[in-house]
Design a protein that fits this description.
This protein is 35% helix and 19% strand. The N terminus and C terminus are likely disordered. The longest helix is centred in the last third of the chain and has 18 residues. This is S-adenosyl-L-methionine-dependent methyltransferase.
Amino acid sequence: MGATNSTTKKRLSKRFQNKFHIYDNYDEFSNNNNNNFASTKRRISSESTISSHSTFSLDRCNELTKTCGNRKYFNKEHVRDIFPTDNDELKRLELTHTWNKELWEGQPFLLPVDEVFNRNARVLDIGCGSGIWSLDMARKYPNCQFTGFDIVDNFPLEVKESNVEFELGNILEGLPYGDNTFDLVFMRNMKGCLSQKDYTTCLQEIIRVSSRWILILDSDIILIGGGPLANQLREEVLDELMKKYDVNMMPSSIIRKCLEDNNQLSDIHFEDKQCPIGEWGGRLGTLYLEILKWATKNLYHSVSSLYSEEEYNLKINEAFDELNHYNSYDMVFRICAKKIVERRRSLKKIVRNP
């Protein structure tokens, strides 16, 4: 896909311009955001957070991570994740949650999935992070039960709703739930954690535990209409991530193929959407530029063999100034699919008269 034309840019710019208040910094965002869970003190309790059938332990969770400088990361030997796992990264993900809600205009679900929330549904949130999505949805749908599932214990307990629980575990080692347990299984922003092979394993587990719908939200890092500096940095970073971690940062085609090739699914719906990068897109574009820039900076540990940290940060600043100048945009997507659940035939007992 080529760069957007000037008419489209003007239309998008008018659509987003002056629609939202722009925060000057992340502290202001955090102070004014009622869903700021990253700054909440975190603790974990085997009684209140991890169910009895969880196969993960806190000791196992701690073994998966290491500290480099003042940042916390996963051990590459155990977990494939290109981003840190600390409060700074959680704040970025929570800002991403706010951006996602505004991007999809408060409706993160494709229309067919909405029917799930008209019943007392059970919902599983894969890779829940701080739990912000589950907690947000739990308040909106108090009749539904939400389970957040992640490999690290970053869930806030102090603000936990009564219809939310959290569990530790690694989906690539299997989900600790029976077949057809959840009406909806939701997954978002997992492209930095999964290889193409991992997606197959992950989606098989998601499909297994779902009884009705699965829904996946993510983005393809394409940087359409970006200038030469941004494109060069993108290619160098993405090539290094693929070589070092086998991670593809443009996952939409992988996910679609996995779902379309699975004979347990029907009614597959795919929708992609242009998102402006930069001030020309109003608050939405400004948020996305800051989220992408923040994410790229947090990638340094994963691509440190390419540049010194000083050189890397300089390249980032130049590239994102260019993206803002060129009125660039990116593609985000959501995809849902309905599971075909075979009903067992009811066998009537035949009673013969003597």
